[in-house]
Specification:
Length: 207
């Protein structure tokens, strides 16, 4: 036998007037802006603690004529934009065991001209000559490399971004200076090892 509820719930008088509306995501077929600008970007490189501050600061980045069509997936040359500009006023980044740093001043680039210019680039020691010699058991050369007026032409920004490297056609430097110093008061190393040259130091940067 079935038991019937002697006190069924009262009907909801507003039930007939209530309608459940299921929302669906808004799909924008086209998103476009004249320009998008990001200023004073702070970048933290891997293995750097937050309390040490950003590795790079003051970076500016701009996208011009940004356009994204979700239906055709048609893309502009770089990051859905006709042109991308980047400006970095100053970079000083310690590498390896922090004996040396890479120092870059006034880096500017834009995808429309496929060009990157740098006022100066340097691979510099973080110690004075006496401090450097005092750290060593054996004599070892200390190197100081600086370049000025750098032009990197024919930069393929699309490939560079996708591969995480820098693809270019020409590299020009107006002037460069290389100083190598070795404190002869230290005994020579009986088992010398090959030192890290600037290209190797750049390649060792975390990606």
């Amino acid at each position: 036998a079935e038991l019937e509820n002697e006190n069924p719930p009262a009907p909801d008088p507003t039930y007939d007037s209530l309608k459940v509306v299921k929302s669906s995501p808004i799909k924008l077929p086209l998103i476009s802006f004249d320009s998008i600008a990001l200023r004073d970007i702070q970048l933290y490189m891997p293995l750097r603690r937050i309390e040490e501050g950003p590795s790079f600061r003051g970076i500016s980045f701009r996208l011009t004529d940004f356009s994204y069509n979700s239906e055709t997936k048609e893309a502009q040359p770089v990051l859905f934009s006709r042109r991308a500009d980047i400006a970095v006023p100053s970079i000083t980044y310690p590498i390896g065991d922090s004996t040396y740093s890479l120092a870059i001043r006034n880096l500017r680039g834009n995808s429309e001209d496929s060009l990157i210019t740098i006022d100066s680039f340097a691979y510099v020691p973080n110690y004075t000559r006496d401090q450097y010699a005092a750290k060593l058991k054996y004599a070892k050369s200390m190197m100081d490399l600086s370049c000025k007026g750098i032009r990197i032409e024919g930069v393929n920004f699309v490939t560079s971004l996708s591969q995480g490297g820098l693809v270019f056609r020409n590299f020009k430097v107006n002037s460069w200076d290389l100083v190598s110093y070795e404190d002869q008061r230290r005994p020579p190393n009986p088992n010398p090892r090959h030192g890290m040259m600037p290209p190797e130091a750049i390649s060792s940067l975390p990606s």
